[in-house]
Design a protein that fits this description.
It is a single chain. The protein contains no helices and ten strands. The protein has strands at about 60-65, 75-80, 85-90, 95-100, 115, 125-130, 130-135, 140-145, 150-155, 165-170. The strands form three sheets. It has a four-stranded antiparallel β-sheet with strand order 1-2-3-4, with no helix packed on it.
Length: about 170
Amino acid sequence: GGNGGHGGVGGTGIYSTTGSTGSTGGTGSAGVGATGGQGGAAGTGGHGGTGVATTISVGAGASGVAISTVGPEAGDIYVTHFNGTVSVIDPTTNSIIATLNLGGVGGGAEQVAVRPAGPKAGYVYVPNGSDTAVINPSTNTVVATIGTGSGPTGVAVSPTGPEAGDIYITNFNS
């Protein structure tokens, strides 16, 4: 019988402060023939992560992060905090350029999404308390709140298709 196939290639490491090792590849398949061949060797592990390039201090309670990909503010980084604030970071200087108080009832901003398409491309959406704050990225101000009931937590914005720019918000309490 023939030799078995080669094992799979290991996965890529997770990016972290120290980098981690990728997963081990799979074993090869058995050979085909009257007596059967030996299985192939296991694949090799992936490469370790690259580590952290820069640490930017934004304060306690940081929870969500999103990066704008459109408009003049493309690259700006938005970090939510459990106390109901958002830090806006300029990636060229790695410094906080604005801290926004979202208000809202109950606080607790956890997630954040940036609208990648549509008439308000670049706008930022942050569920907080019983509202979802809408941030204009040009002025870094809250320009509207959307009443979303008690416990809005998750947020996503459709990137393509006829629903491009539509905002989807999950609510923990309903």
